[in-house]
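Hi W., the pyridoxal-5'-phosphate complex you wanted:
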Amino acid sequence: MLNLHIDSNLQINRQVFKQLAYLIQSGHLQAGDKLPSTRSLAKNHGISRNVVNMAYDQLSIEGYIEIKRGSGAVVAGVKAPKQENRKRKSKTNAVTLKPEVFDKQLSAFARRCFVEEQTKSLQWGFGENKAEIDFRFGVPYLGESLQEHLQKAFRGATKRLDSRQLDYGDPRGDRRLRESISNYLAISRSFHCQPEQIIVTQGAQQGFDLIARALLDRNDKVIMEDPRYLGFERIARLYQADVDHVPIDGHGMIVDELPHDGRYKLIYVTPTHQFPTGVVLRYDRRQALLEYAEKTDCFILEDDYDSEYQFTGRPVPPLASSNGQRVIYCGSFSKLLSPAVRVGFLVLPESLVSHIARLKQYLDIGCNRIVQQALVELLNSGSFGRHLRKTRLRLERNRNALLRTLEEKINEPFEVYGTQGGMHAVVKFNHRRRATFFSLREAANQIGVQIYSPHSYYVKKPEALHLIFGYGHLRENEIREGVRRFADTIKFTP
Ligand SMILES: Cc1ncc(COP(=O)(O)O)c(C=O)c1O
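Structure:
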């Protein structure tokens, strides 16, 4: 079966066309190979048959395939034109990887990354069409006061620069920043660790990369939740690990379903705020997961990406606070401040510290020191704590606005998950099929609203339509207006 990625904001028929054309150009599909029928391709990807017909027609017009009555479409027996003749100008500013770049000179490593992702936009961020109300998830509110704090912190950091501070620093991160992070974790997350266990990284993503490089060989086995955060899975696959998935329910990963053969090297989890559903791993499962890791001698990678924003009760402590020798803790400033800061950190079991520190030194010699010094200014100034408290209240109000307006305006059955914290909520529409997302998105776009689905995060795709509403960066009135418009759209979209 062809595995196409129907996800970006491009027209769907163009996506199908581009991906098939690429598979032919790169030799993945060869002259005489039969393409799937338009019916089965449409069904497998939850898209309309018309769209696939349009893509096939275009492929035929450009000579990639031949469509024969009765026997379907086959790859044509001619060579693709040379690169120079096919330079096209992108209509948008988004940077997309072009199939033409694919080349036999690339390493197998680079090709693994490229083959899977080549049609997607390079940039993660807001939809290109600049909708008036964009429910993008994962973006915190960058209010004026935070901007002021950041400016002040950067001014402070650059004022005190001397030649020592402008030199390469400790690849683990500046000592003062590691101390500040350790204090923050103790106060905010009831997690006590030593600055020596901390490695400052370029976002959580680099933390994932370091862990994967340090632990995973080809065919090593990794477990993730289903649904799961693709940011880690991509990295694990890049290093050729085998990734298995354990389903989640309303209480997080179903730990009883972990395999009993003990062949796993690493388990990636988001226990305090499961991504994307937002559920919390129940206390007995936390214990069972730690016991499993102990018994099978594997590490747990705990991604604690946004649990600072819990609205009720005491903050759920990280797993790492129960067993710091089994659990690798990964934190990020992307939600605490902004993804643009690109700073995250690992808190490592003692057995891994020196290996990961050495790796970090080999790979980039250490993170940007000016940013690190600005973060120290910010974390030690008191304004960071104030910012977090304000943000938590703001997020709670936004969450309430979202839930109330959904309740008032949507006239069909739905369920909402993950509302006790964070910056997004997942909504399941019980009577709608997953594939209706594309037409709904198009209709919502027409009235200035951008919506998103979490379907790509699921291995076992849900039958019903799920949407993910990010509310971190929006104002309450924007949320209400966005949901009202969306409710009008869904009413008239079958
Ligand atoms: C589950 C999860 N983990 C980690 C991150 C943060 O990654 P980074 O720190 O590299 O921005 C995100 C960001 O969206 C996320 O959703």
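The chain has three domains: 12-92, 133-139+387-491, 145-381.

W.
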